[in-house]
Design goal:
By secondary structure, the chain is mainly beta. Helices cover 0% and strands 50% of the residues. Strands 2, 4, 5, 6, 9, 10 and 11 form a 7-stranded mixed beta sheet that branches. A 4-stranded antiparallel beta sheet has the order 1-3-8-7, with no helix packed on it.
């Protein structure tokens, strides 16, 4: 069982940057890690994924602006978010144990990101 805790959310102006962190209670080295987000009134959507080998995938809405990375020595996954837009406002969730096209069973409680002037 892996517990995930997100941090790093907050209020940022359009065009700004934030870096989210996801700390795991156990080893993440053998599982895919991902970020999802849920905006008010919308379904949760996939944002980015990183495989055990370090291959990354992004949704079209964040490609070129967000970067997912992992530090397995620290059991931590990051999401660097640049050029933020108002439509990036959402609760961001860390997810572990999924695969290509589906989430895993490990979820964090989420961190709020608000992009507003």
């Amino acid at each position: 069982q892996v517990q995930l805790v997100e941090s790093g959310g907050g209020l940022v102006q359009p065009g700004g940057s934030l870096r989210l962190s996801c700390a795991a209670s156990g080893s993440t080295a053998s599982i895919y890690m991902a970020w999802y987000r849920q905006a008010p009134g919308k379904q949760r959507e996939w944002v980015a994924r990183i495989t055990t080998g370090g291959t990354t995938h992004y949704s079209n809405s964040v490609k070129g602006r967000f970067t997912i990375s992992r530090d397995d020595a620290k059991n931590t996954v990051y999401l660097q978010m640049n050029s933020l837009k108002a439509e990036d406002t959402a609760v961001y969730y860390c997810n572990g144990g999924g695969g290509l096209g589906y989430p895993g069973t490990y979820w964090g409680h989420g961190t709020q990101v608000t992009v507003s002037s």
